[in-house]
Fold this sequence. Notes:
The protein is an alpha+beta fold. It has helices spanning 9-15, 32-35, 44-47, 55-70, 74-86, 91-100, 103-109, 116-124, 158-164, 202-209; strands at residues 128-130, 133-134, 147-150, 176-179, 184-187.
Amino acid sequence: MARYNDPVCRLCRREGEKLFLKGERCLSPKCAFERRPYPPGMHGRQAQFQKKVSDYGLQLRAKQKARRVYGVFERQFRRYFADAERRRGLTGTNLLVMLETRLDNVVFRLGFASSRPQARQLVGHGHFDVNGRKVDVPSFLVQPGDVVAVRPNSRNKPVFKDMAADLEHRGTPDWLSRDEVALSGRVLALPERGDVDVTINEQLIVEYYSR
């Protein structure tokens, strides 16, 4: 399984905003974006003062930002877009719905991980069940009615023990419900555009792939 191994703080700096890829660290003074809020590289300080960006540049940045927020590589992202085009409704909204219903994102939204990269790792290591069956594929798309739960053998892991006390302080979106005691969650419905709190302009992504 391919993965990004370089410093993720560079991605936030490149996009010009926090993508919250390192969980609690992003909220602390140690956040690299707080200390160096300009693009990485030797010309990063100069680039932050460039005002004129082409339409293609805006479209590219929107696409790259969506990929980096959800941890998806280009080939897989293109497949998501092609699938979104085939579905009924707005292509951009369909794309965001698919990204939101990835299992790793659902685990993050339920509060069982502090970031999407951590959720991707926990799912990949086989710590979650979907409807009682082990699923270790982060890109698995959940459906309304699905129940996502921490596997019984994993509940004694330190990561989940430490998490249990903080769950009551972590909210969940309206399309999900959570049982803190059972360490499980249910998908109540597919998310709507208003449920996606990530600042992504999906229309720019549609324009990018429609060139």
